[in-house]
Amino acid sequence: MADLVSGAVLGAAFGELFAAVKAAVKTTALFQSRLRSLESTLQDTEPIIKEIDSLNILLDRSNEEMKRLYDLLKNGKILVEKSLRIKMNLYKRYRYSCQLEDLGVDILKFFQFYTIVISRDNKEVLVKVNDIREAIRKLGLMLEDVLSGKGTRSVGAGGFGSCAVPKTPELVVGLNVSIRQLKNQLLDGGVSLMVVSAPGGCGKTTLVTTLCLDEEIKGKFGNNIFFLTVSQSPNFTVMVQNMIHYKESILEKFWFEEVKDYKILVTSRFELSRFGPPHKLPPLNDEDARKLFLHSATPKVGSSFRSSLLMKKINGSVVPRDKLIDEVVKHCKGSPLALTVLGKLLCGKHPKIWESTLLEWSEGSIVDSNRAIFDCLQRSLDDLNGKPLYKECFMDLGSFPEDHAIPATALIDMWIELHKLDAEGVHAKRILHELAARNLVDLVATKNDEGEGDGFYDDLYVQQHDLLRELAIHQNSQALIHERKRLNLDVRSNKFPHWCTAQDEQPLNASLLSISTDWPHLELPALEVLILNFRMKNYTLPAFIRKLVSLKTLIITNNGFFPAELSNLTILGSLTNLKRIRLERIKITPCDHSEMTLGYLQKASFFMCDLSQGMMAMPNLAVIDVAYCGELERLPTCLCSITSLRKISIISCHNLCSLPDQIGNLVNLQVLRLRSCMNLSGLPKSIGRLQNLAFLDISDCFSIKELPNEIASLCRLIEVHMKGCSSLSAVPESVVNLEQLKYVTCDLQRAQLWTPYKHRLPQVKVKIVQDDITLDWLLK
């Protein structure tokens, strides 16, 4: 593939595939969802293809990575053209549909952040390295002139910066654990490059300067410690000049010696995971946060205010002023930047000013009131300016309650409908991971299930630092109230904001609304996503929902401990555009669903709900997720009449003891997940009628003792998960008829059950995994 570097051959292959897909979308009725998803993927990646092509030409080289991409694009064009010739052969339709889906997934994988940025950055780095080499050569010649007396000592134009380590702040707190971990890596061999990753203002620079000034670190590296600040548009020539000016003998290191035992420590708002797992800085704990704040907020010795502000006890009780300090520290959310800036802002001020400042924050936010904090956080968001969709998705996060662990599936469902993404959520998942890579969110997994064949995300939660949430809310609040895309209504003490109680003739055009506790009457004709949060035993759905004609996604979360009874649920039956609903800690009663049909609903999610009395009618449902619903003993037989169902996921429903025989009626079911259902005694024989089932998960179903022989009739079964099925002592010999089976994920004991059939199932890969349940996520 040497010709890749001589012109835009990669771009040409991409263009041919793109053209073929566009033509197929217009000319065939088959595979429309697959083709449109593929078209969207190619449209998103077109600019990156052009950039890679130009860099290939600039560097005058190619590599195997580009060869694989080229082959993928060319073979993709052939596949699309062949799919146009498929007629009535159902088997070929299914096979080509799967291959088109695989093509889209393969292209997405190549262009996901962890590959796109790495591939692109590698090439950019090579370009910059060429610049550095040229700069070193020129500077070397200039230095030779200087040393031989032919020139002046002033090398280059404009002078030089310094590579010296800057001073650390007067007080450093909360970094002991990070310093110890990184120090061990710097002093030991092995790892040469480390990354410290965190949002702006979290103390990355303080950490590094403290390390550089550590006596043991200086003892090992001596004067060979270089501290470089790299801007968003770095001038590498100037950087090299700075290094040489700081220590001229570095040229000899580059030219005549092999550099050994070097260490590069990078701080970044990004994860840069190509270089291994980054070291992430957590927020300060309450004790360290208080120390740092008091250091900035307390005037120097001699001030009369000092004694009146610091902690005092009178008859064993803390004076009110001390509570002011606690309130300010609480608002700063463990951010070193916020603690330092606000400490200096309030330093020496009268307690009444502290009280008024706290009042302002209770009605707004720190981000709103302090420019320095806003500017620092804004830089993280500015990195998304080239990706407006990613920025919009970031700002959607402000619609969830403070300190709330957001289910990843809820975000994905919301983004699919709100931003018109592919129905399978591939693009939404990519956005989620890129926001995490930029430290704009944290992803917390309740367990680590590698190899989930259908992209399962129910075990993943999204958390966001409160200051970043405030930044998102601040961004949303810049527009006039009637022009905002998102509205947050957090009602306290029945005090509603003016805009929702005095609506004039202008309608509210928001597409996303989040309401906590109570509600007014609202007119929102354009609303597409509604998030309701409350904490009570009984909750009545607001009547204005009936008029939300454009509503597509509804998320109802009860933050109480026990399921709440939901009244007025029948109004949802009038919403003809409602496609996705998620209920959390809700009790479904017969009066809620006996006369209600959600005829257009495509996905329903129930988390910690009481479903013992049944479910509402959902005749066109495609996906249902049920998790931690302890009262569920039997799967409602009404679900088995929904022939449109493609995915059923039932997780940790410990009282579920059996599946109805009618489950065999679900002729379009592709995914059946029955994980951690400890009392499930087995699978019905009718499961053999699920001719489209491709993925079966019975992991951690301790009570299943055997699999029915009818499992051999699952002619399209590709993947099976059975880790932790401790009572399962045998696999029926009929599994040798599973010709499409490729992957089995299980523990060591269950792997041995497949050994007798190894030679008769040569295509099957058995992956052994260990029990990986962790409760660490609860601490977050």
From TrEMBL:
GO biological process per UniProt: defense response
Gene3D superfamilies, A to Z: Helical domain of apoptotic protease-activating factors, P-loop containing nucleotide triphosphate hydrolases, Ribonuclease Inhibitor, Winged helix-like DNA-binding domain superfamily/Winged helix DNA-binding domain
InterPro entries cross-referenced by the UniProt entry: Apaf_helical, LRR_dom_sf, LRR_R13L4/SHOC2-like, NB-ARC, P-loop_NTPase, Powdery_mildew-R_dom, WH-like_DNA-bd_sf
Domain RPW8: 1-149
SUPFAM superfamilies hit by this protein: P-loop containing nucleoside triphosphate hydrolases, RNI-like
The keyword Repressor appears for this protein: no
UniProt cross-references to Pfam families, sorted A to Z: LRR_14, NB-ARC, RPW8
Keywords, ordered alphabetically: Plant defense, Repeat
Gene Ontology molecular-function annotations: ADP binding
Family: Belongs to the disease resistance NB-LRR family.
Protein name: RPW8 domain-containing protein
